[in-house]
Write a structure and sequence with these properties.
elongated, two-stranded antiparallel ribbon, two-stranded antiparallel sheet, mainly alpha, about 60% helix
Length: about 180
C-alpha cells in the first residue's frame, strides 16, 4: 500500500464515510488539532522519567484517536452508524479520578502557575494549551456540525488533567513557577 494517494492534491480530503470536503473545513481544523495534541502527548510519554507509569497516557492516545475519528465522521452519511465510534462518558470519569488522585498530594494554589519547571511539566503545559485550542475548534465546529457533548466534556477535563500533571511533575523533580505581576 502506498502512503500517498494524490487524492488531496487539489485541496480536498475525505471524511469517514467518503464525502470529500475542503481541507480548510472547520472539521479538519478540529480533528487536526486533536491529532496535534496526540503527537504532543507522545512527546510527553517519551520524556517521562524512568519508573513513571506511562500506561495512562498511552491509553489516552488511543482515546484521542477515537475522539478524532468521531470528529472526522460524516454524520450526514447514510453509513454514519457503520463507521461511528461510540465515545464513552467513562473516559471523562477516568480522567476525573486521575485528576483527583494527583491533586491529593499537591499544595493548594495561591497564585497562577506559569508554564515550565521541569521539561516534562513544560510538555504538559504544551499539551494543555493545544488541548484548549482543540476545544475551541470543536466549539467552532459545533456551530455547523454535530459534536457530542461527551466529547466536549472529555476535552475540557483533559486540559485540567495536563495542568494537574504538570504541577505533580514539578513537585517531584523541579519547582513550580508562580506568576508575579510585573
Amino acid at each position: 500500500m502506498k502512503i500517498y494517494t494524490k487524492t488531496g492534491d487539489k485541496g480536498q480530503t475525505s471524511l469517514i464515510g467518503g464525502r470529500r470536503i475542503s481541507k480548510d473545513d472547520v472539521r479538519l481544523e478540529a480533528y487536526g488539532t486533536v491529532d496535534e495534541l496526540n503527537s504532543w502527548v507522545g512527546c510527553l510519554v517519551a520524556e517521562l522519567p524512568a519508573g513513571h507509569d506511562k500506561t495512562f497516557l498511552i491509553r489516552m492516545q488511543h482515546v484521542l484517536f477515537d475522539l478524532g475519528s468521531t470528529l472526522a465522521l460524516d454524520t450526514e452519511s447514510d453509513d454514519a452508524e457503520q463507521y461511528g465510534i461510540d465515545f464513552h462518558p467513562s473516559h471523562t470519569a477516568t480522567l476525573e479520578a486521575e485528576i483527583d488522585r494527583l491533586s491529593e498530594s499537591l499544595p493548594p494554589l495561591r497564585s497562577f502557575v506559569l508554564p515550565g519547571g521541569t521539561r516534562q511539566a513544560a510538555l504538559c503545559h504544551l499539551c494543555r494549551t493545544v488541548c484548549r485550542r482543540a476545544e475551541r475548534r470543536m466549539y467552532a465546529m459545533k456551530t455547523l456540525h454535530e459534536v457530542p457533548d461527551k466529547v466536549l466534556a472529555y476535552v475540557n477535563r483533559l486540559s485540567d488533567y495536563f495542568f494537574v500533571l504538570a504541577r505533580s511533575l514539578n513537585q517531584t523533580g523541579g519547582h513550580e513557577i508562580f506568576y508575579v505581576k510585573s
